[in-house]
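Q: What structure does this chain adopt?
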Amino acid sequence: MKIVFLGFSKIKYLPYMHSYLDQIDKDKNEVHLIYWDRDEAIDDEVPKGVVPHCYKCYMLDSFPMRKKVGPISGYGKYAKKIIREICPDFMFVLHSTTAITIYNLLCGKYKGKYIFDYRDVTYEKHLFYKNLIAKIVSNSVYTFTSSDGFRIYLPEIPEKVLTSHNLLRSSLSKHEKYKGRIKRLDTEPIRIAFWGMIRQREFNEVIINRLGGDKRFELHYYGRVSILFEDTLRRSQEVYSNVFYHGEYIPSDRDEFADKTDILHNLYSNNDATMPLAMSNKYYDGLIYYLPQLCMKDSYMGDMCEKHCIGLTCDPHKDGFADNVYEYYRNLDLREFEEKCDITLDAILSQVENDETIIRSIVNV
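A:
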């Protein structure tokens, strides 16, 4: 079988692709990947056994929409050209914008011949766009959504829309090692860390100003950031001796800085179309590494955090934010917390195994 993956960014920013790719027997299948090198800065490492097709076109996330139309359209033309040349039997379409650029193929020749991965809200509040997404979902074999919070924008087809969990399987082998990792709750400073793509500059400035200069805490940031935000973080380090920016990292580094973390910063502003409904990779990292996490109040992830008793829901805009975090950590019941992490992770892994069985049954025929 010929299989094509379509991604809308560089390979390094498509970690969720591996949850599908790892289920494919590459001895039985010919696997291709169409991806977009947007910054032309760092070469991507192509997964073993995959034929790469790279669309090179410079485009920053910060570009206004009028400057994005041309590059996005160019990606669609490039993807269609490669698809016509390969004539795949099945496709994995990663991201809704990717799907929109090849909409006619998905709702025509490839109807019922693709899995759609849905993980961000873009223009779904506009009925026309929402209807396009609904059509793409309806014509897929399965649609995997990275958060059940996103289901409000998807058609109600429970047998077709499944949940895809953003956990890194490579980290699971470390899970038992981290049991009992929190030895003492009375150590200071309490080390709070954010890792991943660092966005929402103004929101994080609020957090920095709440915790910066408070000797009870250290605040660490690891990951990719815009130039403007990088300047903000570097200035914050000059103002506050307990704020640190460590730059980009590779996935294997995560174990090292997880060892140096007491609380996971998993806070995102609700003033965004996606984040109030999203589930971040860090939510799963918290479970795997037994790290209590901070999640935004009145968000879907915050609701899950509260429901499963694996962290604190809070709002950095509110007075007493730092005191609430401090008291939460000091009063944490370690045995109960670890038990809740295990129960929650076991339920997620059961879903993951079911999803993987479904994917293997489709592609390894």
